[in-house]
UniProtKB/TrEMBL annotation:
Gene that this polypeptide is encoded by: FNDC7
Residue ranges of domain Fibronectin type-III in the record: 23-110, 111-197, 198-283, 284-368, 369-454
SUPFAM superfamilies hit by this protein: Fibronectin type III
Keywords, in A-Z order: Signal
The organism of origin for this protein: Aotus nancymaae
Signal peptide interval: 1-24
Taxonomic placement: Eukaryota, Metazoa, Chordata, Craniata, Vertebrata
Gene3D superfamilies (alphabetical): Immunoglobulins
Name of the featured protein: Fibronectin type III domain containing 7
InterPro entries, per the entry: FN3_dom, FN3_sf, Ig-like_fold
Classification via Pfam families: fn3 (PF00041)
Amino acid sequence: MAGGRETCLALIGFILTCLKMVTPEIPTIDQAYSKISNSITVEWATVPGATSYLLTAEDGNTVIETMVANSPGTVTGLKAATLYEITIRSISAAGRSQASPPKQAKTVLAAPILEVSSPSSDSILVQWEAVYMATGFSVSIMRANGLGSIWKENTTNTSLTFTSLEAGTLYTIKAYAWNANGIPGDDSTCNQRTSPRAPANIQVSFDSGALKASFSWAPAEGAFNYTVMALSDSSELTCSTTLSSCTISSLQCGTEYLISVLASNDAGSGKSSSAVTLKTVACAPGRVMIQEDPPGHLSVTWSNVDLGDYYVAFVKSDDGLEVHCNTSLTQCNFLSKCGFTYFISVFAYNKAGQSPLGDIFNYTTAPCCPSDINPVLVSSDRVEIVWSPVRGAELYETKAVDGYNVVECNDTAPACTLSALECDTKYNITVYSFSEVRGSNMSCTPQFITTAPCSPEIKNVSRDAFSMINVHWRSTNDDATYTVTAQGEKGLYQCSSMGESCTMGGLPCGSVFSVTAVAETQAGRSLPSYSVPLETAPCCPTGLTVTQITQSVINVSWTIGTVAQTHVAVLESHTGQSKCHTHQNDCLLGCITCGINYTMTLKAISATGLAADCSSLRYFSSACCPLGVKLYRLGPNGIRIYWQASRGSANYSTDLYGSKGIFTCTPSAGLSFCDVAEIPCGDVYTVMVSPVAETGLKLTFCPKKIYSVTCSGSTLGMGKLFFSWIK
């Protein structure tokens, strides 16, 4: 057991001896120093056979090793301002040497971490945090392009401001800290540009139509870009550019903006010290109200707007005519015409220009009233009126009012027929024009039209004793003239009156008429009344002739008159009357007393029983035939005819008819005989003594006596007497 231990120890010693023989030499550190806060540089003498070196830095808490190829070598990754114990080992193919004797070295102070800014266009502020173990700081500044001098400042503070610099210029700032021994630490270097100066000479150009503004200014040194800010109470608008001009659109009307221009670069910005004021155009006036009161006068009102200095209201009619009104108030008045559509716009103005176009309002005035209403037909129950079309009217509404009743008609045509009206009535007729936009024009003037009078009603037609026709009617018209017309085949007859009757005469006999009555006023004529038939008395016959047929019978004849169907002949005297009724044109009347004055009348009667009393005539019946006719011889060849006269005075004529001639004698007035001086004898004579009528006509109806006249003897023989009657 003991022998084995000894053997092991001997082996170890041998190995150590061998190792000592091949391990490289231990280097010796000449010096160790720190120039950078995170590293220490070590210098040593080169060891033969060494291929590299291992540097080790220990601060009691951490160990940092670094392989280097030769001297000097630097250990990095160290802490600033920290004391380290530095050792070195040489390394060769045989192995690694033992650590060299340690050498202490302290890292320098860390570089301050700079924060730089340009609070103004002529200053740069340098700030840093405190550096461990630092007792002071050194800060220097110079232009980055190397021109100019270096400005260096020492301080124990952690900030420093360099002033009186050039605006918009790039500067290089360098700073380091030192410790209590005055050993400087790492330095920090950075570049900082001063902010540009505020732009100057700001110019504003406002486009009122587009509501945009263009801005320009003098370029600022070192400015990378510019920002224009338009600030109002309700909004902020900006535009950015790298140039020296910019445009802001979408400005609001009626707004006052404060305009400022900000020049900026990577260091900051410079804002213009005095803002420019921009007043945009006023907004279009709102709450536009249009009224037409009274007709023909348009009143346009609107609300006041901000920044509006004055207003202009434009009114353009649909015929192209435009007028305007310039005012500092909020109302304008215009003359208007009926039936027009007006387009109205209101603008506000200020020094910036005209407000944007607001709403365009249109106002259509009431259509015009027809002025030339012309009644083309006025009847008892109807009025036709026409008028010229008027501007703006799409429909016409016609009303006829008589106090309580209203008759209407609506039509697009400029004409109307009002029917179912009351006759002889005064109507208030108004034609209202209508449009869909404005409705009816209620200011149209009425026109009074009275309908034609009512038709009269014929109550009766009568005739008086003088064949005058009297017509009576009933009517309710005021101040009417009535015309009665009797019309038939034989003509037209009229009479007129303002009352309720009139008389007409001269109507031809034997005619049939239609009688109508018409009322007439200034308003017109009524319709004719219902017709009433009128038949005039038949015409009296002409050529009335009375012929004595016998002593007691006469024949009355005539020419038949128009329309007469029958006739009544009446012969009347103090002794009585004789009458006949016939449809012929003659008639025989008997029982006539001879030698009497009669009144002869003839009446014509129509088929309807209408009679005409024709004119009468006086008729003296023929004298009575003489009685006791006797012949007496007068001398050898003469003869006297003697008779006994009947009542009354009469003229007689005596005729003797024989084969040898006719012999006539006429007695002197008042005598009842006459003589024939020469008469042949030996013949038979018919003797007739006849009364002679006033007309000289010899009546032949008296009895005849026949006498034979012989030539022998002293006396005449009397022949046989014969009697006969001749019609």
